[in-house]
Amino acid sequence: MTRFFALAVLVLSLAACDKPSDNTAATAPALNQCMKDTDCKGERICESGQCVNPAAPQTLPATPAPATAAPAAPTVAYEALIVSGDEAGPFTVQHTEMGTALTYLSRAGVMNLMESVVEYPDETGYVAVEKAYAFGPNKYVLIVSTGENGRSCPATTYALSFDIQGEYVDGSTEIDGCSELVEAFADGNKLSIKKEGETTVIYNAEIK
Questions:
Q1: pLDDT tens sequence across 161-188
Q2: Which residue in 62, 137, 155, 158 could disulfide with 180, CB within 3.0 to 4.6 Å?
Q3: Contact (Cβ atoms closer than 8 angstroms) between residue 160 and residue 142
Q4: Count of structural domains within the chain
Q5: Are strands 109-112 and 83-84 parallel, antiparallel or unpaired?
Q6: Is the CB of residue 105 less than 8 Å from the CB of residue 90?
Q7: 64 pLDDT exceeds 90?
Q8: What's the pLDDT at 40?
């Protein structure tokens, strides 16, 4: 009887060793669900044997718009003309019975530019071209002093712009001051004119 009991215990022990425990089953790795993306449904993809939703694409930062380029500086510059006696480029000082004219030979004949500058062109007294500049192929700026018969300063100075294509004075301005000394300096498209008063600056041969 004792031998039979011992044999029964041995059989039960062997049977218990062949049965996997519940903990072992819980920790066993899961079987692979897929081998490639096409094994997964919809838009899911295969990663490490598992079908997963694809990651959202990363949004790249917006590229800033290029800054607006500054406008290029004018390529045209003032060119000083030689003032020789009563002549400066295509302009000539001519004495008349009543005063002095600043003339230009236009297609219609000789024209007096001072008629577009002073109120009484026949009573200018003297007229002297202080400085003269060309600006491009069609524009000129002249700096002219006149006595205007002593009505104001010993020397009243004007800057006038002349369009040689249209053949007309398209602008003029009086330079501040009564001195007979006039200074002018051209730098690119900028012309500065000064007596003893405020400086007059003219860009691109445009006198407003």
A1: 999 999 999 999 999 998 889 999 999 9
A2: 155
A3: yes
A4: 1
A5: unpaired
A6: yes
A7: no
A8: 84
Q: Which of 73, 78, 82, 104 is nearest to 91 (CA)?
A: 104
- The domain of 173 spans 78-203
In-domain check, residue 139: yes
The answer to whether the beta carbons of residues 122 and 99 sit under 8 Å apart is yes
Nearest to 166 by CA among 139, 144, 189: 139
Residue 60 in this model has a pLDDT that exceeds 80: no
pLDDT tens-place string over residues 4-37: 444 454 444 545 555 544 444 444 445 677 888 7
Instruction: Locate the DSSP E strands across 147-195.
Output: 156-163, 168-174, 183-187, 190-194
Spell 3-31 as b/e; 16+ CB within 10 A means b. eeeeeeeeeeeeeeeeeeeeeeeeeeeee
179 in a domain, yes or no? yes
Identify whether 164 is part of a domain: yes
- The mean pLDDT value for 102-121 works out to 94
